């Protein structure tokens, strides 16, 4: 890992969501990826303890299983700007597009559009640390579902292979969720062991169309709030 990078991986147990903090050791500027509303106070406290100044709060997509913590963090830490992919149609302070670069101090991450789970999906790549943050597009030995919220298995297959698994094989992959307590994987591992994405595109589409998954538990609460930066519930509670 890049020695100039401060890195933390955090966990929210209800939705099994991973949140990531990346900070520049030299300038102390930081970003946070996929914060959760309920754990925003924890994240703000940790950032303060680490002496980090949070500049950007990023989402990998419009989540359906939890309310984003970007709105809550903006309340807790003045000056923070929220970030989301423009094509998803959600609100944020800064709308990004494929190929954009987000800087924090002397560090930067590249934005790669990886739609297919949702239209709003992106992967954030930190080339200095040889790391990719894939959200729900690519999971550990799995991938995001494609049966709701603009899902398309053909599009997801192409996104993952063209934008994530095309990275050098030693790049570490940090995902949006894991339900078995596994913290990370790699490009090489997923190219070899992912039971869905090692198949042909035709086989992958068949698998994804026959998963028969249950309706997401928090989608009716989470989706409307996440379209407005997680601030819908903040206003209701106020």
Automatic annotation (TrEMBL):
Record's keyword terms, sorted? Acetylation, Dioxygenase, Iron, Metal-binding, Mitochondrion, Oxidoreductase, Transit peptide
Q: What is the lineage of its organism?
A: Eukaryota, Metazoa, Ecdysozoa, Nematoda, Chromadorea
Q: Which InterPro entries match?
A: Metallo-B-lactamas, Mito_Persulfide_Diox, POD-like_MBL-fold, RibonucZ/Hydroxyglut_hydro
Family according to the record: Belongs to the metallo-beta-lactamase superfamily. Glyoxalase II family.
Quote any Pfam family the record assigns: Lactamase_B
Which EC number(s) does UniProt give? 1.13.11.18
CDD domains on file: POD-like_MBL-fold (cd07724)
Reaction catalysis annotation: S-sulfanylglutathione + O2 + H2O = sulfite + glutathione + 2 H(+)
Give start and end of each Metallo-beta-lactamase domain.
16-177
Query: Where in or outside the cell is it found?
Result: Mitochondrion
Name a biological process GO annotation: glutathione metabolic process
Task: State the oligomer form and interacting partners.
Answer: Homodimer. Monomer. Interacts with TST. May interact with RELA.
Gene Ontology terms, cellular component aspect? mitochondrion
Kindly list the GO molecular function terms attached to this UniProt entry: metal ion binding; sulfur dioxygenase activity
Q: Where are its TM segments located?
A: none
Q: Does the keyword Oxidoreductase apply?
A: yes
| Cofactor(s) the protein needs | Fe(2+)
What is the protein's name according to its record?
A: Persulfide dioxygenase ETHE1, mitochondrial
Q: What class of enzyme is it?
A: oxidoreductase
